[in-house]
Amino acid sequence: MSDQEIIESDLNTVLSSEEIAEIDAELAHVPYKSGAAIDALKIVQAQRGWVSDQSLQAIAKYLEMSAEELEGIATFYNLIYRRPVGDKVILFCDSVSCWLCGCEDIKQKISERLGVDYGETTADNRYTLIPVPCLGACDRAPVMMVGDDLHTHLDKQQIEKLFADSKQSDKGGQ
Amino acid sequence: MEKVLTRNIGPDQMPTDMTAYKANGGYVGLRKALSHMSPKDCLKVISDSNLRGRGGAGFPTGMKWSFVPTEDKCTPGHKYLVCNADEMEPGTFKDRLLMECDPHQLIEGMILSAYTIGADISYIFIRGEYVVAIQRLRDAIAECYAKGYLGDNILDSGYSLNMYVHPSAGRYICGEETALINALEGKRANPRAKPPFPQVSGLWGRPTIVNNVETLCNIPHIIDRGADWFKTLGRGEDSGSKLFGVSGKVKNPGCWELPMGTPIREILEDHAGGMRDGYQLKGLLPGGGSTDFLVPEHLDLAMDYNVIGAAGSRMGTGTMIVLDDRSCPVAMVLNLIRFFAQESCGFCTPCRDGLPWTRQVLEDIESGCAESEHLETLAYQIKYIGAIGNTHCALAPGAMEPLQSALKYFYDDFKQHISGGQCPYHKGA
Asked: What pTM was estimated for this model as a whole?
């Protein structure tokens, strides 16, 4: 959909009324609309899993800013996803303490088990694997998050168990 | 030592609710300040206590607060207190513990700090991955609003404060206070030029103080028990207690509240249990990924800001990362430089282009396809990227700290990679 079409279409068909209500609540705290840009991106992502071009354009229009400026913000932050992700995102810590405790082997095990490398989504769309800066649980390294859950003291058996019911695939979906 | 910051944190690490927090002396400092102390009195106590920022830089908290203009010296409007809970320094895991297990301690510290600087709005800027801490803080804040500890006319004192939890959308650079402010304003988190300093012109152009979680958690205790008491907690020249941590191949990695000035050896051997069997200590980063290596000869140094500084490093966050003799120091530094290159905000050239260049040189060395000129290139990069003033903020100079000290202490390891044409730690692997 082009910019022009978005502008002409009813905004509510792109952003849901729930999303607009949540964005409006954030707008009450900021002196100008673009101040809620990151919040709005997060609100839409919480509903849809990621931020599509169409969503981005609709948010930009609602916040009275250019889509280009909002894109600059969206792509800056690593927890805003501008591509579709699986049902759960695996945030795998590859920072120094986890590296010292052998996270590279664990990463390899996950990649083998799920058939994905960093940035890829499993063929069954259940998981997207992404590296993340230090998760602040270095005393329990290696660690990762799967969705909202922190997994610590990772070893290969644990990876096998955690993803036991996930179909093994040769290639990622992305 | 008497536990102060972790007094409510048990081995099960369950959160402390308001009832339990109050039963153990919680909100006594707040009642005392709101009923008997002016903001000026509070500022004097914090200044006298010599509390220094626990986020890494160690700037005196009272002095930082004193730069906030008083009512008669600034235009009417909001003032802000922001808690920097964006714990992302590699190897740092102390603020998570404080927020997950004792959210009210942080909230009380924030109310007191906001009262002192005259702030009416406060934010907890917390990394988005800390989902447990976010929920527990929100629950605790709701408890405070319900019981009159936040909102209008707190405890009938006439003082009002609102508090919001603001989960971040990511990026290490948000821990830099002016970058954090830009992120709070919904922008890209590029650091701002200073001056103006946030104390004068911060969030939305208004006076703003940004303090680390652990710094703020100290405030209720100092207000309650006084500056002199706080000074007695330290073993060396610095005041108070500190959360020290150890990660890496030690027997008992963890995080403990200990007196400021506790020697490194005690932390490593008595608390972390020493190295795992079969591993020797080769070096350590005393306070996170952007601090210079120390080596076994430094083990008897006290963890005090100036003592560690005099040894050529920084105390940083106080959470040590231990390098063992079976892990490659070149690969460890490469891991750190990869991190910093990735986390550059991209604003200034030495950081945006320099760090990936450094990463490339280190990759060549680690993979065994480097010449001795590579070491000269590293020295050049350290000189230009590491010099404060050549970059827009402290990220790239911080990245050079582990590199320059690795070259100093582990030079033979770098040479062996080059002369042997492979990583000596990964031979045959």
From this structure: 0.95
ipTM of the complex as predicted: 0.95
Q: How many helices (H) and strands (E) does chain A have?
A: 9, 4
Positions of CATH 3.40.30.10 in chain A: 88-162
Which of A78, A94, A98, A100 has the highest number of chain B CBs within 10 A, making it the mutation to test binding with B?
A: A100
Tokens of residue A17, six digits: 């009324």
Q: How far is B268 from B354, CA to CA, in rounded Å?
A: 35
A73:B187 CB<8 A: yes
Residues 6+ apart with CB under 8 A from B418: B365, B368, B370, B371, B372, B374, B375
3-state SS record for A37-102: HHHHHHHHHHHHCCCCHHHHHHHHHHCCCCHHHHHHHHCCCCCCCCCCCCCEEEEEECCHHHHHCC
Q: Which of B128, B253, B327 sits opposite A139 (nearest CB)?
A: B253
For residues B131 and A130, give the distance between their C-alpha atoms in angstroms, rounded to a whole number. 17
pLDDT of amino acid A10 = 53
Number of Cβ within a 10 Å radius of residue A71? 16
Residues of B in contact with A145 (CB under 8 A): 129
- Identify all chain A residues contacting B185, using CB atoms and an 8 Å cutoff: 30, 35
Name which of A34, A50, A99 to mutate to probe chain B: the one with the most chain B Cβ atoms within 10 A of its Cβ: A99
Q: What is the pLDDT of residues B92-122, one digit of tens each?
A: 999 999 999 999 999 999 999 999 999 999 9
Tell me which chain A residues have a C-beta less than 8 angstroms from the C-beta of B171. Answer: 76-78
Q: Which domains, ranges and CATH numbers included, belong to chain B?
A: 18-232 (3.40.50.11540), 241-324 (3.10.20.600), 329-426 (1.20.1440.230)
Q: What is the CATH architecture assignment of A3-76?
A: Orthogonal Bundle (1.10)
User: Would you say A136 and A95 are in contact if contact means Cβ atoms under 8 Å apart?
Assistant: no
Name the CATH architecture for the domain at A88-162.
3-Layer(aba) Sandwich (3.40)
Q: What is the pLDDT of residue A70?
A: 98
Residue of A nearest to B320 (CA): A97
